[in-house]
Design brief:
Number of domains: 4
Structural class: alpha/beta
Number of strands: 12
Bound molecules: iron/sulfur cluster
Shape: elongated
Strand content: 5-15%
CATH topology of the largest domain: Farnesyl Diphosphate Synthase
Length: about 575
């Protein structure tokens, strides 16, 4: 069974920007926050906003306080002015592509041009655009309405950004022939068009198409219509609970796409439930999938990776090839990661719905296993030397206090820091430091390691861990924002974070080349350099292609750490 996730599935740029803006405002301010009208047509997102205390304002009161967010569709300028006059601070989240159309209309309206908008006059975007036409705006939704329009001396013609391209081409042809003096602008947003083209292609190459998104969402409904017009069996669902899995069983290939207002967590939940359900029907593939899923959810794969990396770092430092430090690293990383996942259930509900359910269900057992594992790690460190013991003890306490509210609420406003976790960007950097210490410094403290090789081992481990953590932070950006976490990708932005990861991985490879010149055996340097090289290829691939399922992607990245130990053991 083949499952393909559409590259264009989920929030478009304008919707993502509006959701990010309202969440950032809610996370940074104690003031009441409203959206002017429903932010988007998706019940799960609207529910999530309510849990964050973000209410909806449908009419403008005479007086008000707090912030009001104007959604991606935009509003007429008089309504924006009325919101400000009432006393609200306005956050204008109008999509830049809609702003472009508003600018065109305003510019020509000021010169006396009439405005013709191809779009539905009741749609909020069109209502907003009409507000810029200085009372001389006209809408058309069908070809037969064109001859009935008054003939203007000068006019501009624009389209609602989500308009059908083929229909707008006919409109343009009409004006070119009958009103050549009119200025016609191409204002349809490419996002809608690309989404429809992709669903057409997926429907032609798959047996069934599942379209995920709100029933009130116009673009999701259109996507389902496009899929229905093809030979594939198309289903429009709002949540995964609506899927008829018995009907899916007969198909050999299924494509999953989603409207521009469907959040990632609904798409992720649908994909993983469909994959799990279908894999169950194939004994071998199903067993492999379940093992991968278990290793990832429990963090056993990550712990094994930490052990492998520690072994590789010990080989770089020319330390005796014992496995005790690898075992300490495994126990420490396992313990900290499980405890962190338990504290991250809120953001995991949006990033990793499956894992959130798993941690809620087995909370007690996981807590006991994590604490025992942490204790066993500290004991093993004690057997290797007093210094190792103290370092690991301090790191364990820091790890445990990462999520605890150290500063009381009365001393802090919403924007201020109460936990270590609240320090912007701290997660990626602290995980990198902790792994670097446990995999390369700890094995060195009670031995006579050469400082230069300790530094090489530390930087190598830190480079890999930073890249892996920052990459998963990018994947989790939507849920982290909802939970109010300020991870590195939230601070830097997705694109800059990808660039940073690429530089860090290249620097890690260059580090090994330098280590070879400084005396590290060529084969060891070369084999270890292959791991950041592989991560670089995987991350660049996932950056461009989102069609791989979350479990497969996570499994491949986490397995890279196992390779470090394998490479070191070859020699
Ligand atoms: S569909 Fe296009 S114009 Fe509309 S909000 Fe999304 S990016 Fe902006």
């Amino acid at each position: 069974m083949k499952i393909t996730i559409a590259k264009t599935a989920g929030f478009c740029m304008g919707v993502r920007r509006a959701v990010d803006m309202v969440l950032d405002a809610a996370n940074q301010s104690d003031a009441p926050i409203y959206t002017y009208g429903p932010l988007i047509h998706n019940p799960q997102v609207l529910e999530m906003l309510e849990t964050k205390g973000i209410s909806r304002l449908d009419t403008i009161p005479e007086k008000g306080t707090g912030m009001v967010l104007i959604r991606a569709h935009g509003v007429p300028p008089e309504e924006e002015a009325a919101l400000k006059k009432a006393g609200f601070t306005v956050i204008n989240a109008t999509c830049p592509r809609v702003v472009l159309v508003q600018v065109i209309i305003r510019k020509y309206a000021e010169k006396g041009y009439a405005t013709i908008i191809v779009g539905d006059e009741n749609h909020p975007e069109v209502k907003g655009l009409l507000g810029y036409a200085r009372g001389n705006g006209h809408t058309v939704t069908a070809m037969d309405q064109l001859p009935a329009l008054p003939v203007f001396e000068n006019a501009v013609v624009v389209a609602q950004t989500t308009q059908n391209t083929a229909f707008y081409d006919e409109i343009k042809a009409f004006f070119a022939e009958h009103r050549p003096q009119y200025k016609v602008f191409d204002t349809i947003c490419g996002s809608t068009e690309r989404r429809q083209q992709e669903v057409r292609h997926l429907a032609a190459t798959h047996d069934a198409v599942i379209v995920v998104g709100g029933r009130q969402s116009g673009n999701t409904r259109r996507l389902a219509q496009v899929a229905e017009e093809t030979r594939a069996v198309a289903t429009h669902i709002e949540t995964v609970s609506e899927i008829d899995f018995t009907a899916l069983a007969g198909f050999r290939s299924i494509a999953i796409t989603a409207g521009a207002s469907t959040p990632n967590w609904v798409i992720t939940d649908t994909c993983s439930r469909v994959a799990r359900h279908l894999e169950h029907q194939r004994p071998v593939a199903g067993a492999i999938f379940r093992i991968q899923d278990f290793l990832l959810k429990t963090n056993l794969l990550l712990a094994l990776g930490a052990g492998s990396l520690t072994y590789a770092c010990s080989v770089v430092q020319q330390l005796p090839r014992t496995l005790i430090h690898a075992a300490i690293a495994m126990l420490y990383v396992f313990s900290m990661q499980v405890l962190n996942n338990m504290f991250a259930i809120k953001s995991d509900t949006y990033n990793h719905p499956d894992r959130a359910v798993f941690y809620r269900r087995h909370r007690l057992v996981l807590a006991l296993v994590a604490l025992s594992s942490g204790g066993a790690g500290v004991y093993l460190a004690y057997t290797t030397g007093v210094m190792s013991f103290f370092i690991l003890l301090v790191m364990s306490f820091l790890g445990l206090s990462y999520n605890l509210k150290i500063i009381p609420r009365r001393w802090s406003s919403k924007q201020q820091i109460r936990r270590i976790k609240d320090i912007p960007g701290s997660k990626t950097l602290l995980i990198t430091m902790a792994w670097g210490i446990v995999t390369s410094i700890l094995p060195a403290v009670d031995t006579r390691s050469v400082p230069v090789w300790v530094a090489v081992a530390f930087l190598y481990a830190a480079g890999l861990v930073f890249s892996r953590t920052a990459f998963f932070d990018i994947v989790a950006i939507q849920g982290d924002r909802i939970a109010g976490r300020e991870t590195l990708p939230i601070l830097l932005g997705k694109e800059k974070s990808f660039v940073l990861i690429r530089y860090v991985l290249i620097a890690t490879m260059v580090l090994l080349a330098g280590a070879w010149l400084a005396g590290l055996p060529f084969l060891l340097s070369f084999l270890l350099a292959l791991v950041p090289g592989l991560m670089l290829v995987l991350i660049c691939f996932f950056e461009k292609d989102s069609q791989v399922s979350g479990t497969q992607m996570e499994f491949m990245i986490e397995s890279s750490f196992l390779l470090t130990g394998v490479m070191a053991a070859i020699l």
